[in-house]
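Hey, I'm writing a tutorial for new members on how sequence and structure tokens pair up, and I'd like a real worked example in the thread rather than a made-up one. If someone can provide the structure for the chain below, I'll link this post from the tutorial.
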Amino acid sequence: QTEEELHHDEYERFLIVDGTCLMRAGEETYNLAAGDYFAVPLHTPHQLTVTSASPCKAILQRLSVE
């Protein structure tokens, strides 16, 4: 499980390439698996928890708001 994060000046996006995880963003929780894409909205607290027996692998992209 990752630490909860909150971003005001960068967008964070995930493309899951292997395994599964839960993404909690604000009050919502999303089940993500290989092939799923998730864009975290600005100003939204979020946290990721691996749910597969093997590591969950993702491509992470962070983009500055500017």
